[in-house]
């Protein structure tokens, strides 16, 4: 199975560098433009997309919608693709989080990060486990087809760590910008990352972060 793993377009929270987990905020203008650019880039050509899956949050669905419309495919919502529950970190700046939860920040920056829950929220390992459950379920349905999955930052980073066989603490060495696409290939023998954080389709229209 080939997976085009797409991070949703920009929201105002992203633009303002404010923590965003499950708060259901819309795309901003740049995010909407990025969704259109993604549809233009991936609706035609060699991809032969069989299905489109999305997180239930509106920023992911709105990112998927132009591509789904162009391909006349339904958007299939999978709750396991929702963003990390960041609990009390929601809507906070990094400075605020560091001031209010210094013990959490110390552990979050350590090698123990995989099992450190956000204050009142999930850990990276919990995110990875449910995200991979979604991947396995989609794989059972689509075999060797190409699918699009539109989801969120921590979901994507934990999936890529799993594909590359990296400890979750290595998520800091990875990046997936808003609107960017990573291409993963899962076979019976191994999993591969063919392309990571590709935002070339956003360059010409000024929609890249």
What structural keywords apply?
209 residues; alpha/beta; Rossmann fold; 6-stranded mixed β-sheet; 7 helices; 6 strands; globular
List the helices and strands and how they pair.
Elements: E1 2-7, H1 12-16, H2 29-42, E2 49-54, H3 58-71, E3 75-77, H4 94-100, H5 102-108, H6 124-142, E4 146-151, H7 153-164, E5 181-186, E6 191-198
Parallel strand pairs: 1-4, 2-3, 2-4
Antiparallel strand pairs: 1-5, 5-6
Helix pairs in contact: 2-3, 6-7
Describe this entry's structure for a reader.
This protein has helices spanning 12-16, 29-42, 58-71, 94-100, 102-108, 124-142, 153-164; strands at 2-7, 49-54, 75-77, 146-151, 181-186, 191-198. With 209 residues, the chain is α/β, with parallel strands linked by helices. It has one domain (2-202): Rossmann fold. Helix 3 (58-71) links the parallel strand 2 and strand 3. Helix 2 packs parallel to helix 3 (58-71) and helix 6 packs across helix 7. The longest helix has 19 residues, at 124-142. It has 7 helices and 6 strands. The protein has a 6-stranded mixed β-sheet, with helices on both faces. The two termini are 29 Å apart.
Write down how many β-strands occur, each being a DSSP E stretch of 2 or more residues.
Answer: 6
Order of SSEs, N→C?
EHHEHEHHHEHEE
Which CATH C-level class is it?
Alpha Beta
The fourth-level CATH homologous superfamily is Phosphoglycerate mutase-like
Low-confidence stretches: none
Total discrete domains: 1
The radius of gyration over CA amounts to 16 Å
Query: What level of helicity do the residues show?
Result: 25-40%
Sequence of strands across the biggest β-sheet: 3-2-4-1-5-6
Number of alpha- plus pi-helical segments: 7
User: Might you state the CATH topology name?
Assistant: Rossmann fold
How much of the polypeptide forms β-strand, as a percent range?
A: 15-25%
Largest sheet: 6 strands, mixed
Overall body shape: globular
**Which structural class best describes the helix and strand composition?**
alpha/beta
CATH architecture: 3-Layer(aba) Sandwich
